[in-house]
Amino acid sequence: MTSDLAALFSLPFMQRALLAAFFTGLAAPAVGTYLVQRRMALMGDGLGHVAVTGVAIGLVTGFAPTWTAVAAAVVGAVAIEVIRERGNTNGDLALALLFYGGLAGGIFVAGLGGETTAGLQQYLFGSITTTSVSDVLVTVALAVAVIVLCVGLGPQLFAITQDQEFAQVAGLNVRAYNLMIAVLAAVSVTVAMRTVGLLLVSALMVIPVATAQQLTRSFRSTLLISMGLGVTASLGGLVVAAVASYQADVAPGATIVLLSLLCFALAWPVGAALRRRERDRVPFPEDQPSDHVPSSTHPHVHGGECGHRAIAHGDHVDYVHDGHRHAPHGSHYDEH
């Protein structure tokens, strides 16, 4: 099996797939970090649906579908920003309109041009192992542009996504940076469409970010770790699909997304434990509670070896428990 896999990954089409997966795994979570921070995690989904129309136009007219998808997704991204900024409707409703209109438009255009939906499937569900040299070059070029802007303009983009009023007072052009984030998201969608497919592209933009947030406390570390997780999921999912191909026909896009979800499932309990530990360490740094409420039932017996933090309080000792203090008092506990 090992020699077979080595032979498989030495083939040119698999090397192109690995290269495309690597850069897609870096670029998608980079812009996804800003979308999650803006609470627009589903924006990638909406743009993916709009890109379907662009792909259909490319297939019908004979232009490269990648570039027509980029154009359609950028138009959709600008439309979302205009609708959201003018306040005519909220961001969720704007995304819903793009969901329905983009997918329906793609199927309609494909039908007018005599294209069947089978032609759209390699873009809807991904087809990373069929990428050509020109596809890989376009993917790498677009991905590098997205990564450079997302990392290089990190402080400005973070200020925009965190507090737009502060960013405006600081002299930043809020509208221009908002449009930049939307356009970067549109480009990332088209970068990832051959890897995981337009219907799953949002997963690669959001899940690595959600996983990184379980383990980190700063925006920069979330950005960098999510990019590392994206690469791990992309390359790992491609390897899993290659191994499974000896027994069944498994799409790499599905294994990439499922591996991302597995990483989140493993990180979630670790993150919960880290948050609990942090809360127990510094629950009440300065203030000393002066009042208390008696608690008649408490299943845990506190003491020197119970593992909870002990804090001296007047003539007794409080034990930190789930963010508040317990103090033994006769046959009951006092809640502070």
**Over all CA atoms, what is the radius of gyration?**
25 Å
Main sheet strand line-up:
1-5-4-3-2
Report the order of strands and helices. HHHHHHHHHHHHHEEEEE
Task: State the distance separating the first and last CA atoms.
Answer: 62 Å
The average pLDDT is 82
- Number of helix segments? 13
What is the approximate shape?
Answer: globular
Total number of strands: 5
Explain this structure to me?
With 336 residues, the chain is an alpha+beta fold. The protein has 13 helices and five strands. The protein has helices at 2-9, 12-37, 43-61, 65-86, 91-112, 117-124, 133-152, 154-162, 164-169, 174-192, 201-215, 219-244, 252-281; strands at residues 293-295, 310-313, 316-321, 324-329, 332-335. A hairpin with a 2-residue loop joins strand 2 and strand 3. Helix 2 (12-37) packs antiparallel against helix 10. The model has no long low-confidence stretch (mean pLDDT 82).
Which descriptors would you attach to this protein?
336 residues; alpha+beta; 13 helices
